[in-house]
Amino acid sequence: MAADFSRKEGVTELIETVVTIKRVAKVTKGGRNFKLSAWVVVGDGNGRVGIGHGKASETPDAIQKATKRARKSMVKVVISGSGTLPHDVIGEMGASRVLLKPAAPGTGIIAPQPVRAVLEAAGYKDVLTKSLGSHNAVNLLKATLNGLLQLKDPEKVAKERGIPISVIQRRFYRVQKAEDKDEEELHREAQES
Fold it and tell me: Is the pLDDT of residue 72 over 50?
């Protein structure tokens, strides 16, 4: 009566993307020792994403280490119902800055390769980006993740402020129902009195 521990329950297939592989050297008395450095992005395509770094003497080992570290460092990010960002945000790391903006449905992800890898792994469908400053791939990865962690959930913000969510949401996914309009009218009346 042995239990099967080969597959954890609730674990979905993860999206893994190798962003960069570089050869690095350590100079010693006897000469240079070369190793390979790899950066990997891992995500579930449903709001969880992580980045990891691995170094080894062989490429597969470096990628394996990076993937393992990326899985351990996965964090939850906010995705709106239409698959875009809830609001504009700028992520920073070192000399790299990344502007992330919501986009209309059907736009796709318009971004440099390291930024695209993070956004796709997280599960975003429509995002506009602009790289400001340094284009270093590692710093772009970290800046993108920092930007995504700054995002706020519109539903939580609306609840904290005590206003209807339709007032907060952007134009791309603002679909007002009759009840939302009634809420807005009540909100306006409350402000006037």
Answer: yes
Our CA dihedral for 168, 172, 176, 181, rounded to 10 degrees, sits at: 40
pLDDT digit string, tens, across residues 137-169 = 999 999 999 999 999 988 888 888 888 887 777
Which residue shows structure tokens 């875009």? 84
- Judge contact between 56 and 81, C-beta under 8 A: no
Give 130: exposed, middle or buried? Use CB within 10 Å, 0-12, 13-18, 19+: middle
First-to-final CA distance of the chain: 70
* Residue ranges in the chain assigned as alpha helix (H): 59-72, 113-122, 137-149, 154-161, 165-168, 178-192
